[in-house]
Amino acid sequence: MFVTEGAEAVTMRKIAARIEYSATAIYAYFPDKDALLRALCEHDFAALLNSGMHLMHEQDPIERIKQAGSFYIEFALEHPYQYQFMFMAPALVEPSDPALAAYALMRDTVAQAIAAGRLRPECTDVELIAQTLWAALHGVAALHIAGRYEHLQARSPREIASAALDNMFHGLLRPTAATSRALTLASSANRPRKKPARRRAS
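The structure corresponding to this sequence follows.
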């Protein structure tokens, strides 16, 4: 209801009618609509957080971020209404502890990648990198839910999200020794060769 009608249009009486409860019964659990909104947000973010805790078993921070991205997209595809309520509707209440904890997982994993020397030396802003990665994933999910891919020769949201992360990491990751050698060789091969100087006739 909050997604389809907007938070301002939804009243406690409408909610009671939808779930076939009396308004008095709802007020026994929630003193007002804001309290109900807070409870809904906390419930949905806690469910997202708890179902993604298995990702912490992955030791490689880069792989963990990629797996978290796939998990995030799957959540959006399987629960589009909850996703809209959590991430696409105007902020209805202050961020809950579960919501902050869910973001903290991404931020802390980025910090681990930086500490392990996996990212380029100039990539040191943990918040900026975490929020950029999140923005890319959210864009894929939001465009799909809004139906913006319907008139295109669209790839699946899973494929787009995977490609987005791969391309972003291409710019973020510190090149390995093997990669550096390959780039050097490729650069040398593409460099125009100097023509030998002609000898002047004596």
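Residues 33 and 143 are 29 Å apart (CA to CA).
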